[in-house]
Amino acid sequence: MKRLILGLGIAILISGSLFLTGGNSGAASDKEAVCKKAEERYQEMFGKPSSEEPHTVILMYKYTFCPLDIEVKQGTKIRWVNVDKRTSHSVWFKEAGEEESDRAFPEEHIEKTVELAPGIYAYICGPHWEKRDMVAKLKVVP
Hints:
The chain is of the alpha/beta class. Helix content is 18%, strand content 34%. The chain has a single domain (32-141), classed as Immunoglobulin-like. The strands form three sheets. Strands 4-3-6-7 form a four-stranded mixed beta sheet, with helices on one face. The chain is globular, with a radius of gyration of 15 Å.
């Protein structure tokens, strides 16, 4: 009989696959540091803060979506921007039955207008969710 033992982390079940998110208090501060560096890289690359863009921006850096959790209204345009130096990423709302996006290479982006029904959706980076825990959450409100 197989048993799954979980520490303080959070388990997310998506289409029969189990995602484990950070389980210790250091994980949250590590992600915060990664997201701070991601924003610095964005500003170096594009000359302004991501918050000044006319659309919602989510950064992809060091196998992390920044921010990890975000709330948007239906119809919002989201741009996922890869600010890594060498790694490509994708965006995949697998549980919602959507197809995986093409990969975005460094300095490229993926855009999507949110047409999902109100609710909470996990999304993943196709090539990095299993081994690198690149998972995030989108809350859609009317």
